């Protein structure tokens, strides 16, 4: 089990990825994202997760530069937006993201959503970028088991990561078992269900028992399930608090109580129905 913010899981290609990071979904470009990322790095975070569609890659890049932390000590992820899927358009979108971030390479590049018919071509471009050393690891986001099976059937290189909506109301057990079997690391976005879980009575009861916050209990549950997690916050105090999950362990019984909250309910779109940007 990870014991600090520096602890990593080893992806199937040998690259080490931190178990815990900062997500910047819906964090405004400019001062808000710069300060959020700098606060995270200042407090020991090494992994930062953004996406082209968030519109804040430039701010993330500025924060990285201003943080003074050597580039090789950080783990930076961004994602290809739906409208850019396809071979040539992916290669162009990658250059755009890299330029905005002001980086020479990415640690992880993800296909943001599967869509219907272009992700195999997109993946060929990802494989090219990976072979050229422009990206240290490549993966997908919001892929269901059927998408992964289809992609793997023709891929030369298997995705290293699948980042999906994952929280106690959406425990994704079958998908996780499939990813484990295939050696694909599962990663959680929206681990707190965009705040909807923070008043859950079962979670409040467990939090009280460990003298932790509900958020800390959920994030700890992620880690004990071997799921990488990237909670978002713009408040330094919350950024510190979110990461304060390495000094306690949930019992098997409490892990099961949290599992039992599953409702297969989502805060975001269902991957099979997500059409934005694909029109």
Automatic annotation (TrEMBL):
It comes from the Bacteria. The active site is at 54 (proton donor). GO terms for molecular function: oxidoreductase activity, acting on the CH-OH group of donors, NAD or NADP as acceptor. SUPFAM superfamilies: NAD(P)-linked oxidoreductase. Substrate binds at residue 112. Belongs to the aldo/keto reductase family. This is Aldo/keto reductase. The lineage of its organism: Bacteria, Bacillati, Bacillota, Bacilli, Bacillales.
């Amino acid at each position: 089990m990870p014991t600090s913010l520096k602890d990593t899981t080893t992806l199937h290609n040998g690259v080490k990825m931190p178990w815990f990071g900062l997500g910047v979904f819906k964090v405004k470009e400019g001062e808000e994202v710069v300060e959020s990322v700098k606060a995270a790095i200042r407090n020991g975070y090494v992994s930062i997760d953004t996406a082209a569609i968030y519109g804040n890659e430039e701010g993330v890049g500025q924060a990285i530069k201003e943080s003074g932390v050597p580039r090789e000590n950080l783990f930076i992820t961004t994602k290809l937006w739906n409208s850019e899927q396809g071979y040539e358009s992916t290669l162009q979108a990658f250059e755009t993201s890299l330029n905005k971030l002001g980086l020479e390479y990415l640690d992880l590049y993800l296909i943001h959503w599967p869509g219907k018919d272009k992700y195999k071509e997109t993946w060929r471009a990802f494989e090219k970028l990976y072979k050229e050393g422009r990206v240290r690891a490549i993966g997908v986001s919001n892929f269901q088991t059927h998408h992964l099976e289809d992609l793997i059937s023709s891929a030369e290189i298997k995705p290293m990561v699948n980042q999906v909506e994952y929280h106690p109301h959406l425990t994704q057990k079958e998908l996780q078992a499939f990813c484990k079997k295939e050696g694909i690391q599962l990663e959680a976005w929206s681990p707190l269900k965009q705040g909807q879980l923070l008043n859950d009575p079962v979670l409040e009861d467990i939090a009280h028992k460990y003298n932790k916050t509900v958020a800390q209990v959920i994030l700890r549950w992620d880690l004990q399930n071997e799921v990488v997690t990237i909670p978002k916050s713009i408040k330094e105090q919350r950024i510190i608090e979110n990461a304060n999950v390495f000094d306690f362990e949930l019992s098997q019984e409490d892990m099961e109580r949290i599992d039992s909250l599953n409702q297969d309910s989502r805060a975001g779109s269902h991957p099979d129905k997500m059409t934005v940007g694909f029109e």
